[in-house]
Amino acid sequence: MADFQPRWLSAEEQHAWRVFLGATQTLFSAVEAQLQRESGIPLGYYEILVRLSEAEDRSLRMSKLAEVSTSSKSRLSHAVARLEERGWVERLDCPTDRRGQVARLTEAGFEVLATAAPAHVEQVRRSLFDRLSPEQVTQLAAIGTAIAAGEQGDAECCPSSCGGDAVDDDAGDDLEPAELA
After folding, report:
1. In whole angstroms, what is the distance from residue 31 CA to residue 169 CA?
2. Tens of pLDDT along 12-55?
């Protein structure tokens, strides 16, 4: 590793990076504040409820829910435990694999989501989409897709690039929340 030379950012790249950081922090702060103020829901919990509401039978295997909500399995397990305490989600044994668990959105959770969604969407529109032209929205989607695809590629190549082991998508599904925390 002695030969490693960092690829420093150009002035233009450094500026773009700092603008991106500031914009995303401002956006997520505004959206989080609105959800907390008006619905008492953190953005991460809202995302879990949305993903479950869009799934067949309002249910997803915990490993799949972690993947689609871009959350680690341990963070997701903790969040689902808090949502269970509120009565918004229930955890069930996976019918096809006794090691796995499924998270299911309850009627109470769906009602909370349905109540929170209109103001949340308005905040997202006000903070993001009202500030962009249709062309910029298309560019934003393309940029986000490129960033996400690159990160997924980095994770998939981790065994050869960082000496790690391949990731088992269902590893930890059979653990209790306390073991994951």
Report:
1. 30
2. 999 999 999 999 999 999 999 999 999 999 999 999 999 999 99
The answer to pTM > 0.85 is no
What gap in Å lies between CA 137 and CA 24, rounded to an integer? 15
Can you tell me the distance from the alpha carbon of 30 to that of 18, in angstroms, rounded to the nearest whole number? 18
* Cβ neighbours for 180, distance < 8 A, ≥ 6 positions apart: 73, 74, 77, 78, 172
Model pLDDT for residues 87-96, shown as the tens digit of each residue: 999 999 888 8
Check: CATH 1.10.3720.10 for 26-154+169-180?
no
How many Å from the N-terminal Cα to the C-terminal Cα in the chain? Answer: 34
**Rounded distance between C-alpha atoms, residue 52 and residue 126, angstroms:** 25
Tokens representing 110 are 């769906």
